[in-house]
Amino acid sequence: MPDFDLVVIGAGAAGLSTTALSAALGLRIALIERAEMGGDCLNWGCVPSKALLAAAHAAAAARHAGRFGVRVSEPEIDWPAVRAHVRGAIARIAPTDSEARFRGMGVEVIRASAHFTAPDEIEARGRRLTFRRCVIAAGSSAVVPDIPGLGPVPWLTNETIFDLEEKPEHLLILGGGPIGLEMAQAHARLGCRVTVIEAGRIAGRDDPELAEGLRRVLVREGVTLLEGARLASVEPDRPGLTAVLEDGTRIAGSHLLLAVGRAPRLKGLDLQAGNIEATPRGIATDEGLRSLSNRRVWAVGDIADPRGIGPRAFTHVASQHAGVLARRMLFRLPARVDYAALPRVTYTGPELAQVGMTEAEALEAGLDPRPYRFPLPETDRAVAEGIEDGLVKLVVNPKGRLLGAGVLGPHAGEMAGVFGLMIGRKLPLSALAGLVLPYPTLAEAAKRAAGDFYAPKFLSTFSKRLVGLLWRLP
């Protein structure tokens, strides 16, 4: 008999969700974690970044309160208090992910590194554990690019930026994706100079129309955006560094944040000993997250690469993966990963949310997409709240099926669930167009955009003649 029914490597969002589900069903489980319980999301990702953004958004709200007739002086940023708020948010959520909680479920928690010694055996803290099934949930880490001069220059990633004891004077950010843009706006609103260096365009995976709206806001708030700019090298420069671009431009900064992407944590697992196939993109699995080369092993979260489509580094994907495992691994039911309705959100102010395909992706797939837009500022709620930026854009096929949706606006992520439900359940666009919403809400923009799909038929000459005939009936 193996030592454990299930061994889980990694106590981040994916590993904890999988462990909790499996423990509730009575399996003998060992959970192995070498760093902090809760992984990236709790300690260095979602939670601290959103806590920092909350402080930044509060500062921005104070600066703009005058337009509502509320006079507030320029907010004073108490950096130690901001840091205390961030740490407090982590501390309040930590018990949910704690070692004590999982030990209370009957899980054996081992705080150590782990590596495979055989296809059905793992070694951790000098102890060899045999298993019936193993789930690898080791997550991902920030990519550190090979930049000349980077060695002698202190640099930051999402794992270290929240530890800064003093507010950065001039934060240089390499990368204009979600992490880079969130940290850019957060620090700018908290009184720092910020420069973003991006080789392509900011928010490169998102719809260009929505990205343009976010670009205007960031520039208006003082963030310097250098798009189409490549970093050639960095040099130490008291008290910080100088970034040298390929065109020779030199930019002096106090701190450098690397936000160019993430890579799966494969190193040290000794996957070859476990007969586990992997590429630099992650552990190769089928659509049900089972290893292609070792049927005892499964992979979830940032480290999983189902059918070569690449990892999706989101906490909500970790939860989705845990659900697939519950059906496939625990109950032997058919289940597979489906990213067609996967939402992603950049939590700036305004937020940028994207669900499903962008217009460009739908065009590339040959789906003949039709875009329908409605500006958020034209909703009554936006008028009442003085919202000047925002857009809802729906991507629809000729038959009225939603292929994708994007929103730029306050709390745009809150709308994403409706679009995800429609795409995932293949609901017709009429479901959104006919939805009764409370008045006034910003979501009215989504309904109005959906209604535009039906407007030509509803207001056609035929419809007008038909109503004229029906009106004559008693």
TrEMBL record:
Disulfide bond in keyword set: yes
Presence of the UniProt keyword Oxidoreductase in the record: yes
Listed GO MF terms: flavin adenine dinucleotide binding; NAD(P)H dehydrogenase (quinone) activity; oxidoreductase activity, acting on a sulfur group of donors, NAD(P) as acceptor
Alphabetized UniProt keyword annotations: Disulfide bond, FAD, Flavoprotein, NAD, NADP, Nucleotide-binding, Oxidoreductase, Redox-active center
Binding site for FAD: K50, D302
Cystine connections: C41-C46
Record protein name field: Dihydrolipoamide dehydrogenase
Organism annotation: Falsiroseomonas bella
